[in-house]
Amino acid sequence: EADIYQTPRYLVIGTGKKITLECSQTMGHDKMYWYQQDPGMELHLIHYSYGVNSTEKGDLSSESTVSRIRTEHFPLTLESARPSHTSQYLCASSEPRGGGYNEQFFGPGTRLTVL
Amino acid sequence: EDKVVQSPLSLVVHEGDTVTLNCSYEVTNFRSLLWYKQEKKAPTFLFMLTSSGIEKKSGRLSSILDKKELSSILNITATQTGDSAIYLCATGGAAGNKLTFGGGTRVLVKP
């Protein structure tokens, strides 16, 4: 079973606040991902990382930023939260096989509500 | 742009029924197709199908990849209420490590 953790699990916050969503994995996976998912909708990739100091934007444009200073840690930050950021954010990691053959393991998600 | 389409959007069955879920894809340099089950929160991995492994089975769940038709099916036999979930299909292509997800099929199994 995958060991990937996200905190907080739920967050309700006011407009304009800065927030950081935490994601950690203990499997030594090089590759990590952030997805955004609205209720009943598809998962959209917003950021990914292939290793320390590597970050890329995903398929869906996002105002959030990420960093990868340590292999196990991939936090996502919103400098100024807005109601349009209300969504579920899922973090995932995958084994270092690459080439499209990797299964991704997901964390429990953070449900963010911005008032 | 890679594209994954799942059908039906949702279905309701009774315990003991068999369900078949469909996934079709358009992917540049297809590498793999993955099925996930999503209940309340995070998707959990079910199967990965590739050119060298086009059929997978685990208990009551099985999946087949049809590379000619660019599609896959997920079968669940003798359904149970615990099978109620959203089933997600995703593909990995030339971009290597990124997955493209379909919109999912919501399955509700009634007692």
Overall pLDDT metric of chain A: 90
Q: What's the main sheet of chain B like?
A: 6 strands, mixed
Q: Give the SSE order of chain B as H and E letters.
A: EEEEEEEEEEE
Largest sheet of chain A: 7 strands, mixed
The succession of helices and strands of chain A, N to C, reads EEEEEEEEEEE
Q: What's the gyration radius of chain A in Å?
A: 13 Å
Q: Largest chain-chain contact?
A: A-B, 27 and 28 residues
How many β-strands of chain B, per DSSP?
11
Q: How much strand of chain B?
A: over 45%
Low-confidence stretches of chain B: none
Structural class of chain B: mainly beta
Count of helical regions of chain A: 0
Given helix and strand content, the structural type of chain A is: mainly beta
By oligomeric state, this entry counts as: heterodimer
Q: Helical content of chain A, roughly?
A: under 10%
The rounded distance between the terminal residues' Cα atoms of chain A is 35 Å
Mean pLDDT of chain B: 91
Name the overall outline of chain A. globular
Radius of gyration of chain B: 13 Å
Unreliable residue runs of chain A: none
What topology does this entry show?
The complex is a heterodimer of chains A (115) and B (111).
Chain A: E1 4-7, E2 10-13, E3 19-25, E4 31-37, E5 43-51, E6 54-57, E7 65-66, E8 76-78, E9 87-94, E10 104-106, E11 110-114
Parallel strand pairs in A: 2-11
Antiparallel strand pairs in A: 1-3, 3-8, 4-5, 4-9, 5-6, 7-8, 9-10, 9-11
Chain B: E1 3-7, E2 10-14, E3 19-26, E4 32-38, E5 43-50, E6 55-58, E7 61-66, E8 71-76, E9 85-92, E10 99-101, E11 105-110
Parallel strand pairs in B: 2-11
Antiparallel strand pairs in B: 1-3, 3-8, 4-5, 4-9, 6-7, 7-8, 9-10, 9-11
How would you sum up this structure in a few lines?
The complex is a heterodimer of chains A (115) and B (111). With 115 residues, chain A is an all-beta fold.
